[in-house]
Every structure is written in C-alpha cells, then in structure tokens.
Design brief:
Blueprint (H helix, E strand, L loop, with lengths): L3 H6 L6 E7 L2 E6 L4 E4 L14 H23 L3 E13 L7 E13 L3 H15 L1 H8 L3 E10 L1
Parallel strand pairs: 5-6
Antiparallel strand pairs: 1-2, 2-3, 4-5
Helix pairs in contact: 2-3
C-alpha cells in the first residue's frame, strides 16, 4: 500500500472545501488553491453573483474534455490555433433535478486540420480519457458530441 501523500501527488485523491458565506452563497476552494464563488438566483435567496453548482458541473465536463482534445491534437503535431467547446444540457423536471442529456460541441480551429483527426480526438476523450463525462455517462446521463473544423 502506498502512503497517503503518494496518492495526493498522483492526483488520485482530490479535496475541496466549500464555505458558506450567507444566503445561498458559497466559496469553493480546491486543493490546488483556486477559489470560485457559487450563488443562486434571488428567487432562491441568492444575489446572483456567482455560478450555480450545476453550471460548475457543465464547466467541469467541458473543461475536462477540451483539455483532452487539445492535448491529443497537440501531441499529434496538429497546427491547432483554437478550441471552443459549448456544453448544452437538459435537466429532469423533478427533485433532484439531475442532468438527463448533455451535448458537447467542439469548434476547433487551425491550419490544415483534418476532420478525421479531430473526430478521433473527440472520440478518444469521450470514450477513454474524460473522467468527468465518463463518470456522468455511467450515472445515466446521455452524452453526445459533435465538432466543426475551421481553417485559419
């Protein structure tokens, strides 16, 4: 068995602290020392000065998958200039209001990018590398992907 510190160093253990400020506002701080404000809309007691927690999940999935796609294309020596990912999700009309569907649309720009290469990167992220999307998919969220390539 490896010591606890080894698991932290390898990224196998993650930690975050969420501190209640007031109303429905919280500040979340990650183990890496970054912080974000989460808040709700006024009709739920918030002041609308931070992201909603479920929006943070969208950002997490989009960021995780975007990271993969960019890394795969860069390792493949593609002349990548930009990658913008739009994540759209549907939630069930019940409590808990979990995500039922999620769609990631990648707009990848570069010089001489081949659609097949971008498609492969998106597929690898979806099926093998994006921990966030794979975890939500295993929980029953229907996750789809598509992409477009823009020549610059």
């Amino acid at each position: 068995m490896l010591p606890y510190a080894t698991f932290i160093a390898w990224g196998l253990i993650m930690q975050a602290t969420i501190k209640w400020i007031d109303g429905v506002m919280f500040v979340g701080e990650t183990g890496s020392g970054h912080a974000v404000v989460m808040d709700g809309p006024p009709d739920h007691g918030g002041r609308n000065i931070g992201m909603r927690p479920m929006e943070m999940l969208l950002l997490g999935v989009g960021g995780c998958s975007s990271f993969d796609v960019v890394q795969i294309l860069q390792k493949g020596r593609q002349d990548l200039v930009g990658c913008v990912t739009t994540v759209t999700a549907e939630r069930v009309d019940a409590i808990p209001s979990v995500f039922s569907k999620m769609h990631l649309h990648f707009t990848v720009s570069g010089r001489g990018l081949k659609a097949a290469t971008v498609e492969r990167a998106v597929k690898l992220s979806a099926e093998k590398y994006c921990s966030a999307a794979i975890m939500l998919g295993a929980a029953g969220v229907e996750i789809t992907h598509d992409f477009e390539v823009i020549e610059v």
